[in-house]
UniProtKB/TrEMBL annotation:
<dbReference type="InterPro" id="IPR035959">
    <property type="entry name" value="RutC-like_sf"/>
</dbReference>
<dbReference type="InterPro" id="IPR006175">
    <property type="entry name" value="YjgF/YER057c/UK114"/>
</dbReference>
<protein>
    <submittedName>
        <fullName>Uncharacterized protein</fullName>
    </submittedName>
</protein>
<dbReference type="Pfam" id="PF01042">
    <property type="entry name" value="Ribonuc_L-PSP"/>
</dbReference>
<dbReference type="InterPro" id="IPR013813">
    <property type="entry name" value="Endoribo_LPSP/chorism_mut-like"/>
</dbReference>
Amino acid sequence: MIHSEENVSPIPQGQYIPASRFEDLIFTSGMTPRRKGILIQTGKVSSEEPLHIYKKAVRLAVSNALNAAHNIINEDEKLNQILALNVYVNAQESFQAHSDLADFASEYLYEQLGQNGIGSRAAIGVASLPGNAPIEIQITAACTKY
C-alpha cells in the first residue's frame, strides 16, 4: 500500500463507520480533510482564490476515503477498482470549477492505483458541509483476492 498520510481509518464524527462492505463492493462514508479528527482547512471554496490552495485538503479527504476502504478488506485482498468518486464542494454561489477540484482527487487515486483508480465521478456543489469543511469525498470500490 503506497497511499496515506498515516494509513489509519479516519475518526468518525458521529454514529457511522468509515466504510461498509457487501461482498466485493466497498462504500466509504463521506470523508472531509481531517487529520487525527481535526479539519486542516475550513470555509467555502471561493472563485476568487487559486484552486491550488485547496489541493492539500482534497488529497487528504480522498486519502482518508482510500484508507477507510483499505482498512475494511482482508489481508489476502486488494482494492481492484475505484467504481465511483463523489466530490462534494462547499462552494460559494459563484464558484464553477467543481470538476477542476475533483481532478485533484482523481489524480491522487491514479497515483495510488494507476488506471484502476479512475472510475465514474460526480463533482457536486453544496451549500455547506460538516464542520464547514471545504470538501467531502466518498468512494465506491471493488476488491478481489490476490
